[in-house]
Amino acid sequence: MKPSLQTLAMSMAAPGTSENPRNTEASVLVRRDGSYLLAFTEFYGGGRDDSGANIVGLISRDGGESWCDRRILQENVGGCNVMSASLLRLRDGAVLLSYIRKDSRSACTLFSRRSEDDGETFGESVQINDWTAYMGCVNDSFLQLRSGRVFCPVYFTNGACWSGAEHFVARMCYSDDGGRSWQAARTDVDCPMRGTMEPVLLERDDGSLLMLMRTQTGNVYEALSMDEGETWGEAVPNSLPSQEAPIAVRRVPGGRTAVAVWNAAYDSDARSHGGRRSPLHIAVSQDGMQSVGTHFALEQSDSTTFSYPSIAFDGAKLLLTYYVGEDHALVDGGSTAMLGLRFRALDLKALTGETAAFPLETS
Q1: Which of 41, 51, 232, 287 has its CA 20 to 30 A from that of 58?
Q2: Could you read off the pLDDT of 223-279 as tens digits, one per residue?
Q3: pTM metric for this prediction
Q4: Among candidate residues 214, 48, 198, the one with its CA nearest the CA of residue 136
Q5: Is the CB of residue 223 less than 8 Å from the CB of residue 211?
Q6: Torsion of CA 47, 267, 282, 8, to 10 degrees
Q7: First-residue to last-residue Cα distance in the chain
Q8: CATH tag, 7-352
């Protein structure tokens, strides 16, 4: 079968407005009643990474064509904001919500909250990291292994962010009790230049764990763990060109195919981030991201930027979100343009030849 890109639904779930100029970093949960819960960062008072923000939820009951029932999932309890949501359904049926509490350009803390009622309510916040630094976990990056272990991929710097002194490394945090407690892996992962940023994980058929990382080098970097994330090998560049922007990757639940979404058009002459975060590409892999097939341009524009994707599955549908904004990409944590959140549903079988099992999200 030749893969093809077929859009089933598309909507602007959260357009940028004068009151909320940036709506970004989202994650989608397919609920048991068939509705979608969308969690995202809703900024107010500006569009910088350290502007005020809450984690906000929206519901769609028509496959993502429209969104309603806005509510705050996590209010701003930080010195700056709370941001960068992940939603993950666990195999025991519970749902985890994670977020960053950003207090300053040198101090952040990561938290998870557990829901026992399909995302209607969330319990008390549980701290994930046990060290102090400027840190983050990119949106929609939580992963549960086949063993049940849950991962929060963390990156951090001991220097203040946007100071010129920052250098990021990745440190995996994991939970063996469904997010009720967390601990850190024994080894960190480093990359050249500004370091390792916004790591994501993929569990392979052989049980190895693949980490993919944003860098400034013009390539996605990768590292492997053979012991469920306790220790990690050296990071090396892989075959994927990339701007300085995150990559999202998910395996089709119950299938063999991995789907990746990222900004692949690296430009070494660009004034920032290796390019203006357009086009946004999508590709599939049948071998655990050792190789990928055709890079489809999911979005492409001379005047618009697209990034920070999320990936979810609903049977024969592939559910994506990503930000859309005029002008340039986020530079030094800020943007002069409004950034809105786009939802897009693709025909999963047309792209991969597979359909997704529910409710498992095991790899």
Answers
A1: 51
A2: 999 999 999 999 999 999 999 999 999 999 999 999 999 999 888 887 788 788 999
A3: 0.95
A4: 198
A5: yes
A6: 60
A7: 24
A8: 2.120.10.10
